[in-house]
Amino acid sequence: MQVGIVGAPNQGKSTFFNAATLAGAEMAPYPFTTIKANQGVGFLRVKCPCKDFNIQCKPKHGSCQHGERFVPVTLLDVAGLVPGAHEGKGLGNQFLDDLRQASALLHVIDASGSTNSQGEKVPHGSFDPAEIVRFLEEELDLWFFGLLHKNWGKFSRKVKQENAKLTEQVATQFTGLGVVELQVEEAIKEMGLSDDPTLWGDEDLKRFATRLREISKPMMIAANKIDIEGAYENYERLKKEFPEYKIVPVSAESELALRNAAKHGWIDYTPGDSDFRIVDEAKLDEKQKKGLAFLKHFLEKHKTTGVQEALNAAVFDLLKYIIIYPVGQKLCDKDGNVLPDAYLMPPKTTALSFAFALHTDFGNNFVAAIDMRAKNKVGKDHELKNGDVIELVCGK
User: Is residue 272 domain-resident?
Assistant: First the structure.
């Protein structure tokens, strides 16, 4: 599962990516700084079960800080998208190609209105960030429509002549984009389209393409540069103008500064916190003290930089994923590591499907699962909940 960080050039995508991953992607105040997609690991923040069980955990992946578990997730920072990208303008073809396997899209915009849709700097507050939201929607919709429309006549006739299942055939055509048959079925049903694809006109295809994109590539908005004057007012307006989107106010630069300061040992900071502690002020020069004072003031006003909230929202709000902790006896693995693993799973994951996700042998030999919180056995069809700690019982 990948989260794609998308947007027009020079909106702060790479700064957001660096803040979330500390991967060091190139940043510069001009369009197309990102030429090739940057892939890195960000971390979701959730309550760790270690506190509930009053034990000290030892994660094999990610970490646990003060009872907060940080679970890894793959992030993809792609080249900036400009109007006409679906026709190959800018780095459009590359951008769209890089997004094929993204499960969710996190759209980073310059909420201060200081950058236009071409990635060019404009007078502060002179550009309406709502235009960037609309143009990116349009480019993605036209991308999906183009893929459908290209061979639709031939494709639809073949489906009808062979009496093939339409949803299955469309899903096959879109396999490379991570689209599944259930999503195709949902889009067709919601649009009220005919089961006979030869009756679909261009407008039908466009409506279907838009809905399929919305379902298969759900998107949220990170209103970046929220620390700049006028940005918060734009954020409030965007929430009213686009009620269908989850919109999170973000200052990627502030988060990057905080994480770098923590990396150098200047402060004690847990990503997503509303404050930090200076470790040894005597070791800081005046410039560093001034910078940290600015960050203190920012957090006092905004409570958070928004980067952690945006990552969590992309996975938990958009995709509705849950985190499951598989354990053995005494909450350990075979090596004695306590609560070692945290698995991101799709909604409606059952005990049996989780067993198969861990290993085919676990699924094939599944007998039952033990909910370690409730201390009771559950069957194969039991639907797991976010934060469940599960021990599998398997036969030989």
Answer: yes
- CA-CA distance, 46 to 68, in Å (whole number)? 6
Residue 10, domain extent = 1-37+78-130+218-319
Q: Is residue 223 part of a domain?
A: yes
Scanning the structure block, which residue is given the tokens 């919709």? 141
111 shares a domain with 32: yes
CA 190, CA 201: separation in Å to the nearest integer?
17
Same domain, 333 and 386: yes
- Please, which residues have CB within 8 angstroms of residue 82's CB and are 6 or more apart in sequence? 8, 9, 31, 89, 90, 92, 117, 118, 119
- CB neighbour burial string for 105-118, b if at least 16 within 10 angstroms, e if fewer: bbbbbbbbbbbbbe
CA angle 179, 132, 100 (to 5 degrees): 20
User: Do 294 and 172 have their domain in common?
Assistant: no
Which of 105, 98, 114 minimizes the C-alpha distance to 37?
98
Distance CA 286, CA 240 (A): 42
357 near 320, Cβ under 8 Å? no
Q: How many domains does the chain have?
A: 3
User: 231 and 354 share a domain?
Assistant: no
- My answer on whether 382 and 265 are in the same domain is no
* One pLDDT digit (tens) per residue for the chain, 396 residues: 899 999 888 899 989 999 999 864 444 444 444 445 688 999 999 999 999 999 999 999 999 998 999 999 999 988 777 666 555 554 445 556 777 788 999 999 999 999 887 778 898 888 999 999 998 999 889 888 988 888 898 889 989 999 989 999 999 888 888 889 999 999 999 999 998 999 999 999 999 999 999 999 999 999 999 999 999 999 999 999 999 999 999 999 999 999 999 999 999 999 999 999 999 999 999 999 999 999 999 999 999 999 999 999 999 999 999 999 999 988 998 888 999 999 999 999 999 999 999 999 999 999 999 999 999 999 999 999 999 999 999 987
The answer to whether residues 126 and 84 belong to one domain is yes
The CATH number that applies at residue 123 is 3.40.50.300
Q: What is the rounded CA–CA span in Å between residue 343 and residue 345?
A: 6
Local structure of 377: helix, strand or coil? strand
